[in-house]
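Page 42, continued from yesterday. The earlier attempt failed because a stray header line got pasted into the input along with the sequence. Redoing it now with the clean sequence only.
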Amino acid sequence: MAHGNQRLTYAQRAAVAVLWTFCRGFALLPHFVRHYLFGYPLYVLLCYVLRYRRRVIMTNLRNSFPDKSENDLLKICRGTYRNLAEQIINTLSKSGISNEELQRRMIVRAPEQVKNDTLGQNMILVTAHYGPWELGTVVSLSFTEHTCVGVYHELNNVVFDELFKRIRQHTNVELVSMTRLMRHFIDNKDGRPMILGLISDQNPTIRPNFHWHKFLHQWTAFYNGAELLAMKYGLPVYYFSPRRVKAGHYEAHLTCIYDGKEQVEVNEITERYVRILEQEVISEPEMWMWTHRRWKHTPPEELRKQKI
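This time it went through. C-alpha cells are written below.
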C-alpha cells in the first residue's frame, strides 16, 4: 500500500511541514550559496567527519577496479563524496526551483528526435544512480504530450517518504510505487501516453532462475521489470544518460536500446542497459553511488567458479 497523508499522524504531518519548509527555504537561496558555500562543507562532513559508508565504498571500488592502485581508488572515493554532496543539494533544490529553471539546470538533448521515432507511444526510460538521478524527472518538461510516471521505492519512514514525494512531484510527473507499476500501466495504457521512468541498478529481489550479468568484474543481478514490460507490450526503451557540466548544471542524452519491435532474446534488453551503464561507470566512476551494498546477493555456485 502506498504511503499517503491518510496514514500520517498529526505529529508526522507537522514533521513533514517543518522539513518541507526547510527544503523550500534552502532552495530559494542563490545557486552560488547552495552549491559552493554549502556544497564544500557538506562534502567535508561526509568524507572526513562522518566517513559515510567509507568501508562499503572502498570494498565496492576494490572489487570493481582490481587493477587500480589504492591511491586511485581513494581519489574516486573522494569524488564519490563530492558527487553525493552535490546530489543532496540538487534534491533539496527541487523543492523550490521553477520548471523553467529546472530545464536550464538539466538540458535534455534532441527530444524531438525521440518524439519522431516513438510517435506518441507509451515508452520506458531507464537510468541509474549515476550523477543527478533525481533530476531525471525533468524529461517530463520536454515530453508534455506524455504523462511521466516516476517509479519509486517507498521509504520505511513515512515522514521522509511523504517529504520525498513532495520534492519529486512537479508538472507532468505522476509518482507510482514499484509494487503498483504493472497494475498502473495496465489500467492506464490506453489513455494518455506514458513515459515510465525506472532506476534499474538497485538490488532486486532474487528469485529462482534469476539471470546474472557480468558487471564491473562481478556477477550482478539487475531489475528486469523494464524488459518484461517492453517485451510484453512492445514499448520502446531509452537510456537516460546525464553528464555534469558544472555544479548543479547537466545535460542528458536519450539512447534507444530497444525500439519496441525488434525480436530479441530474453535478458537482451537488460544486458544492453548493463553494458551502457558499465561504460558510463568506467568513464566517470565518481558519478555512481558506490555507497550502496550493491553486491550483497551471492550468485549461484556454478557462476562463482567462473572467471569474469
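Notes: DSSP finds twelve helices and nine strands in the chain.
Reminder to self: strip header lines before submitting.
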